[in-house]
Amino acid sequence: MSLLVVGSVAFDAIETPRGKVPRAAGGAATYFALAASVFTKVRLVGVVGDDFSAADEKLFAGRNIDLEGLERASGKTFFWSGRYNQNMNERTTLQTDLNVFAAFNPKLPASYCDSVYVFLANIDPTLQSSVVKQIKCKPKLIALDTMNYWIERTPAELRETLKQAQILMINDDETRQLSGEHNILRAAKHIFSMGPKTLIVKRGEHGALMIHEKFMFSVPGFPLEEVHDPTGAGDSFAGGFMGYLAAAKSLNPATLKRAMVYGSVLGSFAVEKFGVERLLTLKRREVEARAKKFEQLTAFEL
Amino acid sequence: MSLLVVGSVAFDAIETPRGKVPRAAGGAATYFALAASVFTKVRLVGVVGDDFSAADEKLFAGRNIDLEGLERASGKTFFWSGRYNQNMNERTTLQTDLNVFAAFNPKLPASYCDSVYVFLANIDPTLQSSVVKQIKCKPKLIALDTMNYWIERTPAELRETLKQAQILMINDDETRQLSGEHNILRAAKHIFSMGPKTLIVKRGEHGALMIHEKFMFSVPGFPLEEVHDPTGAGDSFAGGFMGYLAAAKSLNPATLKRAMVYGSVLGSFAVEKFGVERLLTLKRREVEARAKKFEQLTAFEL
């Protein structure tokens, strides 16, 4: 069923202990769309500047990604540069130029207004809400990401957006900051009272934990011998998760658990090369093979 | 089959955000023995001072723990005090008085010299080796724990001990420090060349990862609403792991995986109350029920 993502499309300059790239297409919506398109068609809502060329756009070509919602504005595309430390768990942002993203006001093409699955990537909660308002029929599932910046600066607006979402995907620190609770289970209960009845805590190399009102599910990080670039792992996770759900057309616990695994599979591939490079060559059979490896990594019989 | 542990028996003073205790029986061998005794008989090799009273010793009574190897020396028992920060992941050691432990020279009673499963808790590698030498028949499995102190101060002695062990159980930092490799898979390969063919990386609230020459297995931390005191979680994990293996009498992958789960079960109970308190009231059926919960937490079908 139709899956919509709203979020950033950017150019990134990335430096990790394994190398560096001066300019690579990135942004949450880019990673999300590439990951989700393994499973289903994705409608992308975002904005790029006039430096985003036809060659850059080819990234999305032939991939089940609908770009009708990708606005072209006059000016430069959002630019981010960052450096990762040796353990790849911490990064320093060197530069953030919002450029055309600063005035981004997402407008859904008429053809997107029946979207059934919606992912609100990490942007201003007011914009996240405005996207939800533009969807005419009630979506089956709205999931959102956010970050410390919005939790601190626009708490009231974030609360409004949260009321409309069923799933919140954030990391441990954001979970604690948003809920004011240190313990992750108590934090989840607090977040349930804000709207979402499912919390997915993203833990980088330690995997992800889903806390649903009625069950919990944990998936480990996939041990890799070579991690080249952690950028976009969380958004690729979200893309794999939502893409799988939209294709599966069910939200029962077994499906949600499988979606967690497929999200982790996509996240694990994303970090194998710089930027979105690995996602571009990824085959469905490789995705299925790694999902099997996740099974081998976690399955036991009592 | 017979399981032997050598390690510290101590008094601990512990302060966590959930409370404090001024003097509680602790030490690696204590946690290990209490956890392992859920599954099998444990032979304990350690030393206590004359302040370790008959009342203190009652801790071990009626629990499948053989104390013939617990030496009574003149002087005070090993004392440790520490404080945990809000997130319970970091602790500050406030005081360490080795006392009778400083001159500890483990001597195995004749009746222990046929031990088949051996756990060398975190003590001087020279003492770990001396224990192995006193075992007459070749043990089926020797596992060991160590720490940064021994990795830095007695690397040659540690290397000798490692040659005799099949399983090494340490945390992420220790894995990196011992191997000189940041990546955990490459670190494991390096460690395999030192002797052990199985590495268990203990990750606290993030669970544990077993890297065996032929497979990997990950078990998450069990999400708990109340963590009172993380002291002894790793030693309780080791006790559950080794106790289960000794009772199971097999070292095939399925058994090793189950042992990882039972280790995690014991570790998760240990932190629910202060010191060893929770282990003292623990019933086998509670252990089995939590193992089932680990299954629910991790199982999925593709």
What tags apply to this protein structure?
14 strands; 302 residues; ten-stranded mixed beta sheet; homodimer; four-stranded mixed beta sheet; alpha/beta
Low-confidence stretches of chain A: none
Number-wise, the strands of chain A total: 14
Oligomer: homodimer
How widely separated are the two ends of chain A? 38 Å
Indicate the radius of gyration of chain A in whole angstroms.
18 Å
SSE pattern of chain A, N- to C-terminal: EEEHEHEEEEEHEHHEHHEEEHHHH
Could you tell me the strand content of chain A as a percent range?
Answer: 15-25%
Number of discrete helical segments of chain A: 11
Helicity of chain A, in percent? 25-40%
Which structural category fits the helices and strands of chain A?
Answer: alpha/beta
Shape of chain A: globular
Biggest β-sheet strands, sense, barrel of chain A: 10 strands, mixed
Mean pLDDT of chain A: 96
Structural commentary:
Chain A is an alpha/beta fold. Chain A has eleven helices and 14 strands. In chain A, the strands form two sheets. In chain A, strands 1, 4, 5, 6, 9, 10, 11, 12, 13 and 14 form a ten-stranded mixed β-sheet that branches. The first copy, chain A, has a four-stranded mixed β-sheet with strand order 3-2-7-8. In chain A, α6 crosses α7 (184-192). The longest helix of chain A has 18 residues, at 253-270. Chain A binds chain B through residues 86-87, 182-186, 203, 206-207, 209, 211, 215-220, 223-227, 254, 257-258, 260-261, 288, 291-292, 295-302, and chain B through 86-87, 182-186, 203, 206-207, 209, 211, 215-220, 223-227, 254, 257-258, 260-261, 288, 291-292, 295-302.
